[in-house]
Amino acid sequence: MFKNPANKHIHEMPKKKTSIYIDEDLWNQWMHFILDDPRYGTTRKASEALEDAMRCYLESKNKK
C-alpha cells in the first residue's frame, strides 16, 4: 500500500513480471541513478523506481 498526493491509501494492483531488452549502458546509468536516489537506494527497488518513472512519463504525456 502507498499514499497518493492526497494522503489517501491506495492498494497496489497485481504485478506483471516481464522482460525488456534495453541498451546495457542505459540500464547501468539507470541503476546508478537508483542507487544514488535516497527514495530507492538499493537494486531491490529498481522495479519500484521504474514503475514511478513510467507513471511520471505517462502523466506528463496525458497532460498535453
What's the number of domains?
1
Spans of at least 5 consecutive residues whose pLDDT stays below 50 are none
- What structural category do the secondary elements indicate? mainly alpha
Principal-axes shape call: globular
Rg, alpha carbons: 14 Å
The helical percent reads 40-55%
Structure write-up:
- The chain is mostly helical and 64 residues long.
- It has one domain.
- 47% of the residues lie in helices and 6% in strands.
- The chain has helices spanning 24-36, 46-62; strands at residues 2-3, 9-10.
- The protein has a two-stranded antiparallel sheet.
- Strand 1 (2-3) and strand 2 (9-10) form a beta hairpin.
- The protein is globular.
